[in-house]
Amino acid sequence: MSSGFARGRRLRSTPALRRLTAQTRLSPADFVLPVFVKQGIEEPVAIGSMPGVVQHTLDSLRKAGQEAAEAGIGGMMLFGIPGEKDPVGSQADAADGIVNVALQQLRADLGNELVLMADLCLCEYTDHGHCGVVTPAGVVDNDPTLDRYAAVAVAQAQAGAHVIAPSGMMDGQVAAIRRALDGAAYTETPILAYAAKYASGFYGPFREAAEGAPRFGDRSTYQMDPPNADEALREVAQDLAEGADAVMVKPALPYLDIVARVADAVHVPVSAYQVSGEYAMVEAAAANGWVDRERAILETLTAIRRAGAGTVLTYWAVEAARLLR
Protein backbone atom coordinates (compact mmCIF):
# COMPACT_ATOMS: atom_id res chain seq x y z
CA MET A 1 0.00 0.00 0.00
CA SER A 2 1.29 3.45 -0.88
CA SER A 3 2.46 5.57 2.06
CA GLY A 4 2.16 8.82 0.11
CA PHE A 5 -1.31 9.82 1.34
CA ALA A 6 -1.82 12.23 4.21
CA ARG A 7 -1.85 10.67 7.65
CA GLY A 8 -3.53 12.92 10.18
CA ARG A 9 -2.77 10.36 12.86
CA ARG A 10 0.92 11.28 12.72
CA LEU A 11 0.22 14.38 14.80
CA ARG A 12 -2.03 12.56 17.29
CA SER A 13 0.21 9.74 18.41
CA THR A 14 1.22 11.10 21.83
CA PRO A 15 -0.25 13.51 24.37
CA ALA A 16 2.73 15.81 23.84
CA LEU A 17 2.13 15.96 20.08
CA ARG A 18 -1.55 16.63 20.61
CA ARG A 19 -0.73 19.46 23.01
CA LEU A 20 1.81 20.89 20.57
CA THR A 21 -0.64 20.94 17.66
CA ALA A 22 -3.77 22.01 19.56
CA GLN A 23 -5.43 24.91 17.79
CA THR A 24 -7.62 25.99 20.71
CA ARG A 25 -6.23 26.27 24.22
CA LEU A 26 -7.98 26.89 27.51
CA SER A 27 -6.54 29.13 30.17
CA PRO A 28 -7.95 30.01 33.61
CA ALA A 29 -7.92 33.65 32.53
CA ASP A 30 -10.58 32.78 29.93
CA PHE A 31 -13.17 32.03 32.61
CA VAL A 32 -15.61 34.21 34.55
CA LEU A 33 -17.47 32.72 37.51
CA PRO A 34 -21.13 33.72 37.93
CA VAL A 35 -22.04 33.95 41.63
CA PHE A 36 -25.24 34.50 43.60
CA VAL A 37 -25.34 36.42 46.87
CA LYS A 38 -28.50 36.53 48.97
CA GLN A 39 -29.51 38.96 51.65
CA GLY A 40 -30.63 37.70 55.04
CA ILE A 41 -29.16 34.18 55.10
CA GLU A 42 -26.62 32.99 57.65
CA GLU A 43 -25.23 30.00 55.73
CA PRO A 44 -24.83 29.30 52.01
CA VAL A 45 -27.93 27.72 50.48
CA ALA A 46 -27.43 24.86 48.02
CA ILE A 47 -29.23 25.13 44.67
CA GLY A 48 -30.92 21.79 44.02
CA SER A 49 -30.87 21.98 40.23
CA MET A 50 -27.23 23.10 40.13
CA PRO A 51 -25.13 20.69 42.21
CA GLY A 52 -22.12 22.43 43.69
CA VAL A 53 -23.54 25.96 43.25
CA VAL A 54 -24.92 27.96 46.18
CA GLN A 55 -26.57 31.20 47.12
CA HIS A 56 -23.77 32.87 49.04
CA THR A 57 -23.72 34.88 52.19
CA LEU A 58 -21.51 37.95 52.10
CA ASP A 59 -18.86 36.06 54.06
CA SER A 60 -18.93 32.94 51.91
CA LEU A 61 -18.80 35.10 48.79
CA ARG A 62 -15.63 36.76 50.05
CA LYS A 63 -14.11 33.33 50.52
CA ALA A 64 -15.20 32.34 47.01
CA GLY A 65 -13.60 35.50 45.70
CA GLN A 66 -10.27 34.59 47.29
CA GLU A 67 -10.47 31.08 45.84
CA ALA A 68 -11.26 32.48 42.40
CA ALA A 69 -8.30 34.84 42.53
CA GLU A 70 -5.99 32.05 43.69
CA ALA A 71 -7.20 29.84 40.83
CA GLY A 72 -6.22 32.57 38.37
CA ILE A 73 -9.58 32.95 36.65
CA GLY A 74 -10.44 36.15 34.86
CA GLY A 75 -13.34 37.46 36.89
CA MET A 76 -16.66 37.08 38.68
CA MET A 77 -20.16 38.09 37.61
CA LEU A 78 -22.39 39.05 40.54
CA PHE A 79 -26.13 38.39 40.82
CA GLY A 80 -28.08 39.42 43.91
CA ILE A 81 -31.20 38.24 45.70
CA PRO A 82 -32.54 41.03 47.93
CA GLY A 83 -34.45 40.65 51.16
CA GLU A 84 -37.33 42.73 49.80
CA LYS A 85 -38.71 43.16 46.28
CA ASP A 86 -40.95 45.86 44.82
CA PRO A 87 -42.39 46.87 41.43
CA VAL A 88 -39.32 48.90 40.37
CA GLY A 89 -36.52 46.85 41.93
CA SER A 90 -35.42 49.54 44.37
CA GLN A 91 -32.78 47.35 46.00
CA ALA A 92 -30.81 47.12 42.76
CA ASP A 93 -29.41 50.64 43.18
CA ALA A 94 -29.74 51.02 46.95
CA ALA A 95 -26.43 51.78 48.65
CA ASP A 96 -27.11 48.93 51.05
CA GLY A 97 -28.40 46.62 48.31
CA ILE A 98 -26.91 43.17 48.50
CA VAL A 99 -24.85 43.30 45.29
CA ASN A 100 -23.55 46.78 46.00
CA VAL A 101 -22.39 45.78 49.47
CA ALA A 102 -20.84 42.62 48.04
CA LEU A 103 -18.99 44.65 45.41
CA GLN A 104 -17.60 46.98 48.08
CA GLN A 105 -16.34 44.07 50.14
CA LEU A 106 -14.85 42.16 47.22
CA ARG A 107 -13.14 45.26 45.88
CA ALA A 108 -11.66 45.94 49.32
CA ASP A 109 -10.44 42.33 49.56
CA LEU A 110 -9.17 41.84 46.03
CA GLY A 111 -8.48 45.28 44.61
CA ASN A 112 -7.82 44.80 40.91
CA GLU A 113 -6.70 41.19 41.19
CA LEU A 114 -9.99 39.91 39.76
CA VAL A 115 -12.36 41.63 37.33
CA LEU A 116 -15.59 42.24 39.22
CA MET A 117 -18.56 42.33 36.85
CA ALA A 118 -22.01 43.43 37.92
CA ASP A 119 -24.98 41.94 36.10
CA LEU A 120 -27.41 44.78 35.54
CA CYS A 121 -31.03 43.68 35.40
CA LEU A 122 -34.11 44.03 37.57
CA CYS A 123 -35.68 40.57 37.45
CA GLU A 124 -34.13 39.45 40.76
CA TYR A 125 -35.28 42.68 42.43
CA THR A 126 -38.85 43.15 41.19
CA ASP A 127 -41.86 41.52 42.80
CA HIS A 128 -43.22 40.61 39.35
CA GLY A 129 -39.97 39.02 38.17
CA HIS A 130 -39.68 40.91 34.89
CA CYS A 131 -36.58 42.78 33.78
CA GLY A 132 -38.04 46.26 33.98
CA VAL A 133 -40.90 48.54 34.93
CA VAL A 134 -44.27 46.98 34.09
CA THR A 135 -47.34 48.91 32.91
CA PRO A 136 -50.80 48.29 34.42
CA ALA A 137 -51.49 46.16 31.34
CA GLY A 138 -48.57 43.89 32.29
CA VAL A 139 -46.16 45.01 29.55
CA VAL A 140 -42.52 45.79 30.29
CA ASP A 141 -42.18 49.51 29.56
CA ASN A 142 -38.89 50.01 27.74
CA ASP A 143 -38.06 53.68 28.25
CA PRO A 144 -38.86 54.08 31.97
CA THR A 145 -36.84 50.92 32.49
CA LEU A 146 -33.82 52.64 30.92
CA ASP A 147 -33.96 55.26 33.67
CA ARG A 148 -33.80 52.50 36.26
CA TYR A 149 -30.89 50.83 34.47
CA ALA A 150 -28.98 54.11 34.42
CA ALA A 151 -29.37 54.55 38.17
CA VAL A 152 -28.33 50.95 38.85
CA ALA A 153 -25.24 51.29 36.66
CA VAL A 154 -24.00 54.30 38.59
CA ALA A 155 -24.65 52.57 41.92
CA GLN A 156 -22.72 49.51 40.81
CA ALA A 157 -19.80 51.58 39.59
CA GLN A 158 -19.75 53.52 42.86
CA ALA A 159 -19.71 50.21 44.74
CA GLY A 160 -16.58 49.07 42.92
CA ALA A 161 -17.64 47.14 39.84
CA HIS A 162 -14.91 47.04 37.22
CA VAL A 163 -17.41 46.19 34.46
CA ILE A 164 -21.14 46.86 34.08
CA ALA A 165 -22.96 44.06 32.27
CA PRO A 166 -26.54 44.92 31.27
CA SER A 167 -28.61 41.81 30.56
CA GLY A 168 -32.18 43.09 30.43
CA MET A 169 -32.43 43.31 26.61
CA MET A 170 -34.17 46.68 26.62
CA ASP A 171 -33.73 48.70 23.43
CA GLY A 172 -31.29 51.55 24.02
CA GLN A 173 -29.98 50.19 27.32
CA VAL A 174 -26.30 50.56 26.46
CA ALA A 175 -26.67 54.19 25.39
CA ALA A 176 -28.60 55.05 28.56
CA ILE A 177 -26.03 53.34 30.77
CA ARG A 178 -23.08 54.93 28.94
CA ARG A 179 -24.59 58.41 29.37
CA ALA A 180 -25.20 57.79 33.05
CA LEU A 181 -21.72 56.44 33.72
CA ASP A 182 -20.06 59.28 31.84
CA GLY A 183 -22.25 61.83 33.62
CA ALA A 184 -21.17 60.43 36.99
CA ALA A 185 -17.47 60.57 36.01
CA TYR A 186 -17.16 56.81 35.39
CA THR A 187 -15.95 57.32 31.85
CA GLU A 188 -13.36 54.56 32.25
CA THR A 189 -15.88 51.90 33.35
CA PRO A 190 -16.51 49.49 30.46
CA ILE A 191 -19.82 47.96 29.43
CA LEU A 192 -20.08 44.28 28.58
CA ALA A 193 -23.42 44.04 26.80
CA TYR A 194 -25.51 40.90 26.84
CA ALA A 195 -26.07 41.76 23.20
CA ALA A 196 -27.51 38.48 21.90
CA LYS A 197 -29.50 37.03 24.78
CA TYR A 198 -32.06 34.47 23.68
CA ALA A 199 -35.39 33.56 25.26
CA SER A 200 -34.07 30.14 26.13
CA GLY A 201 -35.38 27.03 27.84
CA PHE A 202 -31.94 26.55 29.36
CA TYR A 203 -32.41 29.20 32.06
CA GLY A 204 -34.58 27.10 34.38
CA PRO A 205 -32.03 26.35 37.12
CA PHE A 206 -30.87 29.98 37.14
CA ARG A 207 -34.37 31.09 38.03
CA GLU A 208 -34.20 28.89 41.11
CA ALA A 209 -30.78 30.27 41.96
CA ALA A 210 -31.62 33.94 41.42
CA GLU A 211 -35.27 33.69 42.50
CA GLY A 212 -36.21 35.79 39.49
CA ALA A 213 -38.79 33.82 37.54
CA PRO A 214 -41.53 36.05 36.07
CA ARG A 215 -44.82 35.93 37.98
CA PHE A 216 -46.79 36.12 34.75
CA GLY A 217 -46.06 35.71 31.06
CA ASP A 218 -42.51 35.23 29.85
CA ARG A 219 -39.64 37.28 28.40
CA SER A 220 -40.21 36.48 24.73
CA THR A 221 -41.11 40.06 23.85
CA TYR A 222 -37.71 41.44 24.84
CA GLN A 223 -35.27 38.53 24.72
CA MET A 224 -34.32 37.19 21.29
CA ASP A 225 -36.29 34.52 19.45
CA PRO A 226 -34.21 31.30 19.16
CA PRO A 227 -34.77 30.75 15.39
CA ASN A 228 -33.18 34.09 14.51
CA ALA A 229 -29.49 34.47 13.70
CA ASP A 230 -29.23 37.66 11.62
CA GLU A 231 -31.08 39.52 14.35
CA ALA A 232 -28.20 38.73 16.71
CA LEU A 233 -25.82 40.62 14.48
CA ARG A 234 -28.19 43.59 14.41
CA GLU A 235 -28.43 43.58 18.21
CA VAL A 236 -24.65 43.39 18.53
CA ALA A 237 -24.15 46.22 16.02
CA GLN A 238 -26.65 48.39 17.86
CA ASP A 239 -24.99 47.83 21.23
CA LEU A 240 -21.57 48.64 19.79
CA ALA A 241 -22.94 51.80 18.17
CA GLU A 242 -24.34 52.81 21.57
CA GLY A 243 -20.96 52.42 23.25
CA ALA A 244 -20.56 48.80 24.36
CA ASP A 245 -16.93 47.83 24.89
CA ALA A 246 -17.51 44.07 24.66
CA VAL A 247 -20.44 41.81 23.79
CA MET A 248 -21.90 38.54 24.97
CA VAL A 249 -23.90 35.67 23.50
CA LYS A 250 -26.20 33.77 25.87
CA PRO A 251 -26.66 30.77 26.06
CA ALA A 252 -23.44 29.31 24.66
CA LEU A 253 -23.59 25.67 23.51
CA PRO A 254 -27.00 25.80 21.74
CA TYR A 255 -25.84 29.01 20.01
CA LEU A 256 -22.28 28.23 18.92
CA ASP A 257 -23.18 29.35 15.41
CA ILE A 258 -24.13 32.75 16.82
CA VAL A 259 -20.89 32.93 18.81
CA ALA A 260 -18.95 32.22 15.63
CA ARG A 261 -20.84 34.75 13.53
CA VAL A 262 -20.49 37.47 16.15
CA ALA A 263 -16.78 36.76 16.63
CA ASP A 264 -16.24 37.02 12.87
CA ALA A 265 -18.22 40.25 12.62
CA VAL A 266 -16.75 42.39 15.41
CA HIS A 267 -13.38 43.61 16.62
CA VAL A 268 -14.16 43.77 20.33
CA PRO A 269 -13.96 41.03 22.98
CA VAL A 270 -16.70 38.41 22.69
CA SER A 271 -17.99 36.46 25.69
CA ALA A 272 -20.37 33.52 25.85
CA TYR A 273 -22.37 32.40 28.89
CA GLN A 274 -22.50 28.66 29.57
CA VAL A 275 -25.84 28.92 31.32
CA SER A 276 -27.40 27.02 34.20
CA GLY A 277 -29.23 24.48 32.03
CA GLU A 278 -26.01 23.58 30.21
CA TYR A 279 -24.30 23.07 33.56
CA ALA A 280 -27.19 21.07 34.99
CA MET A 281 -27.38 18.70 32.02
CA VAL A 282 -23.74 17.69 32.31
CA GLU A 283 -23.93 17.36 36.09
CA ALA A 284 -27.05 15.19 35.85
CA ALA A 285 -25.59 12.97 33.15
CA ALA A 286 -22.35 12.60 35.08
CA ALA A 287 -24.22 11.75 38.28
CA ASN A 288 -25.86 8.90 36.39
CA GLY A 289 -22.55 7.69 35.02
CA TRP A 290 -23.54 8.54 31.47
CA VAL A 291 -20.63 10.88 30.69
CA ASP A 292 -17.12 11.42 32.01
CA ARG A 293 -17.70 14.59 34.00
CA GLU A 294 -14.26 16.22 33.81
CA ARG A 295 -13.85 15.44 30.12
CA ALA A 296 -17.30 16.85 29.40
CA ILE A 297 -16.52 20.05 31.32
CA LEU A 298 -13.32 20.74 29.41
CA GLU A 299 -14.79 19.64 26.09
CA THR A 300 -17.75 22.00 26.35
CA LEU A 301 -15.51 24.90 27.35
CA THR A 302 -13.17 24.13 24.46
CA ALA A 303 -16.12 24.11 22.04
CA ILE A 304 -17.20 27.57 23.17
CA ARG A 305 -13.68 28.95 22.85
CA ARG A 306 -13.22 27.22 19.50
CA ALA A 307 -16.38 28.91 18.21
CA GLY A 308 -14.76 32.27 18.88
CA ALA A 309 -15.56 33.35 22.43
CA GLY A 310 -12.56 34.90 24.13
CA THR A 311 -14.19 34.65 27.55
CA VAL A 312 -16.57 32.01 28.90
CA LEU A 313 -18.88 32.59 31.84
CA THR A 314 -19.17 29.20 33.50
CA TYR A 315 -20.13 27.83 36.90
CA TRP A 316 -17.15 25.48 36.53
CA ALA A 317 -14.68 28.38 36.26
CA VAL A 318 -12.63 27.61 39.37
CA GLU A 319 -12.80 23.85 38.96
CA ALA A 320 -11.84 24.06 35.29
CA ALA A 321 -8.91 26.31 36.16
CA ARG A 322 -7.69 23.68 38.60
CA LEU A 323 -8.14 20.90 36.04
CA LEU A 324 -5.88 22.81 33.66
CA ARG A 325 -2.96 22.94 36.08
Describe the secondary-structure layout.
Elements (H helix, E strand, L loop, with lengths): L14 H7 L9 E8 L6 E2 L7 E3 L1 H14 L3 E7 L16 H13 L4 E6 L21 H18 L3 E4 L6 H11 L8 E6 L6 H7 L19 H12 L4 E5 L5 H10 L4 E4 L2 H12 L5 H15 L3 E3 L3 H7 L2
Parallel strand pairs: 1-3, 1-4, 1-10, 4-5, 5-6, 7-8, 8-9, 9-10
Antiparallel strand pairs: 2-3
Helix pairs in contact: 2-3, 3-4, 4-5
Report how far the terminal alpha carbons are from each other: 43 Å
Number of domains: 1
Residue stretches low in confidence (pLDDT < 50, at least 5 long) are none
What composes the largest sheet?
10 strands, mixed
Order of helices and strands: HEEEHEHEHEHEHHEHEHHEH
Strand content range: 5-15%
- State the shape: globular
CATH fold type? TIM Barrel
Q: CATH superfamily, called what?
A: Aldolase class I
Please estimate the helix content.
25-40%
The CATH architecture is Alpha-Beta Barrel
Which CATH C-level class is it? Alpha Beta
Helix vs. strand class: alpha/beta
Annotation, overall tally of beta strands: 10
Mean pLDDT: 93
Provide the gyration radius in Å.
20 Å
Protein name: Delta-aminolevulinic acid dehydratase
Function: Catalyzes an early step in the biosynthesis of tetrapyrroles. Binds two molecules of 5-aminolevulinate per subunit, each at a distinct site, and catalyzes their condensation to form porphobilinogen.
EC number: 4.2.1.24
InterPro entries: ALAD (IPR001731), ALAD_AS (IPR030656), Aldolase_TIM (IPR013785)
